[in-house]
Amino acid sequence: MDPQTKPPLRCLLLPGLDGTGLLFEPLLGVLPPDLAPEVVAYPADRPLGYDDLTPWVEAQLPRHEPFAIIAESFSGPLAIRIAARRPPGLVALVLVATFVHRPVPWLPAALAPLARPLLFRLPPFAAAVRWFLADDDGHELAAKVARVVRRIAPAVIACRVRAALTVDARAELAAVAVPILIVSARRDRLLGPGAARTLARLRPDAAHCEIDAPHMLLQRRPREAADAVAPFLRSL
Q1: CA-CA-CA-CA dihedral for 16, 17, 21, 25, to nearest 10
Q2: Which of 42, 21, 71, 15 is nearest to 229 (CA)?
Q3: What is d(CA 12, CA 82) in angstroms, rounded to the nearest whole number?
Q4: Is residue 95 within 8 Å of residue 182, measured between CB atoms?
Q5: Residue 103 has pLDDT above 90, yes or no
Q6: Is the dihedral of CA 216, 222, 224, 230 positive or negative?
Q7: In this structure, are residues 154 and 178 in contact, taking their beta carbons and an 8 Å threshold?
Q8: Stretch 109-118: mean pLDDT, rounded?
Q9: How much is the pTM?
Q10: CB 23 within 8 A of CB 49
Q11: Which residues contact residue 55 at a Cβ distance below 8 angstroms, ignoring those fewer than 6 apart?
């Protein structure tokens, strides 16, 4: 190999609430060849919160080469926790449409225990997916989300919702030593603008890119997301 040629940078992709990684398909199709994505899927039949998912993901980290973590939505606090532990080889953290504390400010954390499996036995309403996640014209994406969610046990979804509503990774965010990129969605109806503002306020040294997209920006604007993430990782 030419000594001037660098091998592709391994990029671990941590998924949203579904945990399957199947919704990363649009992004995988547009990432440049100097980034080598690896999707980390979570167990679909075991109710695991952030405490249990942390060692699950850590066991899959590369051991002998540089890598970056790209975390979407639900996985943001998980990626922050892992990065705060400073695993060898980690060179960057990319946080996409995610949060560090209280992801849905209008929903009190005290209501988290009400997120029980019974609430998730039916697939999500397409209209709700379009409104909160995919945008008004995201009919195809809404249908795909419904298909993916059917693969996951209701108890698993309920456990992840409870974990997200009660997590607080602010102390861990302060301990992250690698460069951070915050990619936020301008029209995020689920998290609103507050989640990205909190991340930026707590880490003013982080790079920040806002994309004109709904919450599921990696699915609705994959090219723009890749164009934001790739130069940041190359700069390292």
Answers
A1: -60
A2: 71
A3: 12
A4: yes
A5: no
A6: positive
A7: no
A8: 58
A9: 0.91
A10: no
A11: none
